[in-house]
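ARCHIVE CARD
SHELF: 3
SLOT: left
DATA:
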Amino acid sequence: MTPLPAPPPRHPRVLWMLRAFAVLLPLAALVAAGISTFHTVEQAARGRVQRAADMLHEHALRAFEAQELTIAAIEQRLEDTAWEDVASQPALYAFLRALDAVNPNSGGVALIDPRGLLVMSSAQPFGTPPHDVAHRDYVAAMRVGAAIPEAPFIGQVVRAVASGKPVFPMVRARQRSDGLSDGGSILASLWPVNFESFYRSILETPADSVTLFRLDGALLAAVPPPAEPEGAALPRAAGEMLRALRRGPVETLRGPSPIDGEPRLTAFRRLTRHNVGIAYGLSLGALQRDWRRLMLGPLVSAALGMALLLAATWQAERAMRNRALAEARARASERQATLGLLAGGLAHDFGNITQSVAAAARLLARDAEDPARVRALAGQLGGHAERATSLSRRLLETTRRSNPAAPMAEPVDVSASLREMAELLDATLGAGIRVRCEVPGGLRSAPGIDRAELETALINLAANARDAMPQGGEVRILANRLSVPPHPAGAPELMPGNYLRITVRDGGLGMSPETLARLGEPFFTTKPEGRGTGLGLAMVAAFLRAAGGALAAESRPGQGTAIHMLLPAG
């Protein structure tokens, strides 16, 4: 017997679908992982960029506040001194020199009389003849009889008269007896190069940028720096961003930077009192590098998954072919058995017919002379013939039926986060403020806590602690585990369980019981107007509530304040 050939698969569409599934499923998973990973990378980068912008804002604010204090000291020293007597006072010159020397960011302090003449400068020898600076923008802004704004005027970058190096001045009009400007001014300038040196020290990648600018577009300091700093300005493309920043906060932008047109993730902050903005731009190339690094694992997993699925598909196809072959052999055996039965039955039936025909033939031979008998025997022979025909027809139909033509789908390391932020805050909260971190290792939050929000909350609390100590002091950051019983006093909304208590403690002015009772209320603040929004602690409290924690505080007037953040522990 000739062996049966292996039949083709009975379900080619199923096999095609299995092969497509083996390829497309890992590819779909890889695409989903790529999208999710890039979103994660971008969100983490947004958090870093926003923290960098907050730090830059604080750095600029501290530098500006230091020069404002210098201007205030000179105002007090000049009281009752006429402009015509200024140039002849060596003690006043020595005072300016001393003020300039204590601030490393200071680019010099100077006095400009109502005629626009620079009559005394810490950067020039005593007795230097007056120098005309009336053409500069900060002199033009000091109009006689004008109201004196709260914040000093920030001038555009100019070349210092004495050194010829770029500086940008901070200028306040001198006040006459009626409280209005007498046309003269007190100037305390700042070195852009010092700002740029600090900016370079905090860049995440060399391709990042930092820009300090006035809200009219005048450029004050930048990394990378402009080719010619004097009179430098932002491009026209930054106009919409400047208008938005004048109206209020601006969201972090992803795409071409309005400052230099490079693809960046850019965060903006505004120094409201000074009409100055600052921007940190993270190169999108850094995001793409981080994304590619994180996608190596999913890429390998997808390749392995595809190989395994293709191997499984091959095994399934092989099994289907073997099954089809087995079924074909079984059907062949069944047909052979059926033919055997048919052959046996056919032999038996034809044997009976043959016997009947033979008997009729013998009777015909014997009774040939009897017509009636012959007719009867002929009728019997016709019946046997019909029986044979019917047998043949049934055999053919059975043979045809037995041979058919066509086969029928993690937690935050709080210890590390607090230590990193403590180092950052110690460097940025300003002179006289020290930050000490007393945090044990191994503290982790429950899953679902946003590290960026936790660090933003810590920055808010540390800034409040700094503001509560105008004479300087120490901010302590502490953390420990805490077991909360059902319905604890002071925070009945907390579920019982294990928590992390993160404490920011200062030795500042403290708060009265009335003030403490309103802690965390939106828009409630004890700071002077223009210095606080009253939203910092409210946002911290909202973050803690959303995380399943709570905000608590301890304070007494004159004995400092301790703010506690309670977060579910991991």
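SLOT: right
DATA:
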Amino acid sequence: MSALDAALSAQVASVNRLVGQVAGQVDRLSGQVASVHANQHQTRTELQQLRDEFRAFAMQARLAAALQRAETRVGVIQDRLDHEFGHHKVVRRTAVGMLQAFDTGLVSEEAVRAVGDQLMLQTPRYWLAPALVALAAWSADDQALCARAVQEAFRRAPDRTSLLFALVLRRQGRHAESARWLRHYLLAQDPAALGREFAVILESVAQGAFGAAGRAMLREALERWHGLLGADTGAQNTQIERWGAELRSLCPVVDGAEFPYLRAVSPQWPQLAGVLSGARGQQAVLDKYTAITNLEPAPTQRLEDAVDDILDRLVSEYDDEELPLRRDLAYQEAVITHDGDTARARTDTEADASSYDESLDYLTVQSTAALNPAAIGTSEATRRLAVAACRDWFHHAHQGFGRDYRAVVPQDVRARFGAAYPVGAQRFTLPAWEGSYQKPLPELERELGEHWDRHTAPFVASLGYKYTPAVALAVLVCLVALFLGGGGGGPAGAVMAVLIVGGIAWLIIRGLAGQCRRAQDSARQILDRAKRAALEQLVGARADLTAWQHAYEDADAVEARVADLIASLDTGTEGNSPFSGRTVTPEGPRT
């Protein structure tokens, strides 16, 4: 028996060594599997990063190419402007000096001949050249040359020529002659397609350049034009829409960092951000137009100084033939300013498109003088009058503006949770859950917690070791070993074989079950942290929603002050307003 015991002990020791080696190999294999999964996750992350970097590189390449093309195009356009219209610059510079010399009476016959010889030959189609010849000839008392030059200038551009002479004669104190030229100018106008220089008329009236008679004549024409165009419902609605676009452009962007939890969990966040942006736009509108209406323009020293400014603007404007190139140049320069971003450049140039339009209808001129006076060259003094004249468009646009953002205030703000979470080599996907903040917060916390527990418990349980098939397989292997061992070594051999095989199976099962328990514990900890984070987001979003509601109420309360400001606008208090004060509705004029 002692020999048999010694043999059994040696075999058991050998089996234990084999079991230890198998357990070590199992641990190493598990580590290698985890490493493979980690490498796969790292590879996916690197591929996503590479994709993002490639997209950023492609976008940067497009921007760089657009920037280079714009820089090249700017040079080409400038060369073309210099080649085709360079002499126009000379005429415009000469016009400024000529007006000064004409005012002092220092124009000689030699100057008249120089102007006629140079400007007429260099600019055969430009209206300003013969107009300057006419002024020079008049100063030099050359009636024949003056008459021919007037006829030629009037043939080339009757409206601008009439305006120039009206302003010059007004400056010389020839009021009756100035009014006649003003009448010529007005008769030459189409209220649906006014020339760009019409803004100078508005500026002239605002400065009182034509006196009471000229102002009455102009207001009569404007009233007539406003009646013609105001009967067009589409034209009225177009101006209301322009004012609506102005109000929307003043809305500030709501930074998501101000309400981080609400942005992260609420599917209604885009609506909430848009509504708050619109409400905060009320204060921006109030600030801008209060400043405009309260602005006191600097008084001019003499009326002639104001006329000089108007004349300078008239003679320094681009000719219609230059406008397409100037428009293209403005766009290319905007592309350069925005570092190749063609979309932003197009938006900027379209916003100032009226700066390069050959013609505008009277209603658009009136709105443009109020919204973007720099686009048509009017002053802040004229802008104040234009804003008052556009009061009804402003009013209807403001009503629609407030109505639009209030109409999309979410009635039911909800929180949504549902995402995939990496858990070791596995991924747990939380089914979507939504809760309404109309419910009490404790109830939402309870429902979300139960949702997490309901779906995480089966997932964690699925990571446990499956004992039933393993035990069944071990029993089967032991029976096979018992049969084989009994056939070769008798009962003692069979028992020994069963003990050896059973011990190995037990150790393997125990090792695998331990790994599964550790995986379960790790998964439980990861998912518990994710659950706590989700509950924190739920509570934080509720606090953000409360803060949003207070911010919205405060911003929306400014609407009444803006309405009061619009109602206070009155062209009747502005005796020199060049604009019509007719009342309009979105459907047309109201008598």
